[in-house]
Design brief:
Length: 140
C-alpha cells in the first residue's frame, strides 16, 4: 500500500509570518494539532500545539506578534506520496513522530499529511501498534 492511498490530502498549511495566536485559532477551529509551514510552495517547517505551548507561551513570546517562523521545527521529517506505507511507518517509528508531511516526489510540493490515526485505520494493527509504542516512549 502506498502513502497516497491513506494520507489526508486536504492539508491545512500556513505561512511563516502567521502569528501564533492565529495558528492556535486555526488549530482549534480545524481540530488539528499540527500545521505545516510553507514558503514559496516549499515545506519550510512544522508547528505543533506543543510548539505553541513550549516554544511560545512558556518562553514568554507574545502570541499576537510572534510568528510561526520563530517556533516552528525547521528540520522536518517527511515522506513521499509514492512511498510504501511500511517504509513511511518505519520512519515515523524511528524518528518518533506522530505525523509526517507528504511531498510530491516530482516537485517536492506538500500534497498531504500522514498521521498515526491514518495508519491505525488502514495498516495492520501490528504496524500501527509498533509505531504508537515507539512514539510514546518517554525518555527521562
Amino acid at each position: 500500500m502506498l502513502v497516497k492511498e491513506i494520507m489526508t490530502s486536504n492539508v491545512e498549511w500556513v505561512g511563516p509570518d502567521m502569528t501564533i495566536d492565529k495558528l492556535a485559532i486555526r488549530m482549534k477551529d480545524r481540530d488539528i494539532g499540527c500545521l505545516p509551514v510553507e514558503e514559496g510552495n516549499r515545506l519550510v517547517g512544522l508547528v505543533t500545539d506543543r510548539d505553541i505551548a513550549i516554544r511560545a507561551i512558556a518562553a514568554g513570546l507574545d502570541p499576537k506578534t510572534a510568528m510561526a517562523r520563530e517556533i516552528m521545527s525547521k528540520d522536518v521529517i517527511y515522506c513521499f506520496e509514492d512511498q510504501d506505507l511500511d517504509d513511511a511507518a518505519h520512519v515515523m517509528e524511528e524518528k518518533r513522530v506522530r505525523r509526517l508531511p507528504v511531498l510530491s516526489r516530482f516537485d517536492k510540493a506538500l500534497v498531504g499529511m500522514l498521521a498515526l490515526d491514518d495508519l491505525s485505520k488502514a495498516a495492520s494493527h501490528q504496524l500501527a501498534g509498533e509505531v504508537m509504542e515507539a512514539v510514546s516512549i518517554v525518555h527521562h
